[in-house]
Write a structure and sequence with these properties.
By secondary structure, the protein is mainly alpha-helical. The protein has 8 helices and no strands. Its main location: membrane.
Length: 212
């Protein structure tokens, strides 16, 4: 029903905003620096939750779908997803919340640019106009909380590029193999957790992360 859909949308917005504010508080007030380790647990919990739902009979994981991605494709898309989350967390760590949100919105035009350059897919004038209004509104709302630093801008730019590329690949693989977003997330999450854990070991656990 529409009421259920509205409730889901509101819950999604509330949980996303809460997660951003909690993470920022951890990083700023408590000087939490283990971003990669945090990301590893993020992917691991995502995989375990979807695995539990599938075991209950509600979701068919990619391994049991009629078609599936090769290991190389899984690793490629998973790596882009890892870059997206890791660099977004680093952007949040080294930027204000307003700057983080402003940079995050640039993912939308970045996706449009990648699709146009790679596949020649253009966007209608109405969509571009709507996007311009949205970006202008966010700029006005966050102007008092936007500050740029070299390090924060660097991680923010990497976050935008990796997120845009991940979303493009994610959409193309869903169409190519007829997968739902849940199925694709289910099959990528363990790969993403493994990739992030390998990077977190030298960076976070061995102390290299403090050099960031």
């Amino acid at each position: 029903s529409q009421a259920t859909l509205l409730l889901i949308i509101l819950a999604s917005v509330a949980s996303s905003v809460s997660l951003i504010l909690v993470n920022k508080q951890l990083m700023k007030k408590y000087h939490f620096e283990y971003v990669l380790t945090l990301t590893t647990f993020h992917f691991l919990c995502t995989w375990l939750a979807l695995e539990a739902v599938w075991r209950a009979g509600d979701v068919t994981p990619l391994a049991f779908a009629p078609k599936h991605l090769s290991t190389a494709e899984r690793v490629k898309v998973a790596a882009a997803g890892v870059g997206s989350i890791v660099f977004m967390n680093l952007s949040l760590q080294f930027n204000s919340v307003g700057t983080y949100q402003a940079l995050k919105l640039l993912c939308i035009p970045a996706v449009m640019a990648i699709q146009w350059v790679v596949a020649g897919v253009s966007t209608s004038a109405r969509v571009r106009a709507s996007l311009a209004v949205l970006l202008t509104g966010v700029a006005i709302a966050t102007v008092t909380d936007v500050t740029f630093t070299l390090r924060g801008t660097f991680f923010g730019a990497l976050a935008v590029l990796s997120t845009a590329q991940f979303q493009v690949w994610q959409g193309s693989k869903q169409k190519e193999f007829g997968l739902s977003s849940v199925q694709l997330t289910h099959t990528l999450a363990p790969y993403q957790a493994a990739i992030t854990a390998l990077v977190a070991l030298p960076v976070d656990v061995m102390g290299a992360g403090h050099a960031l």
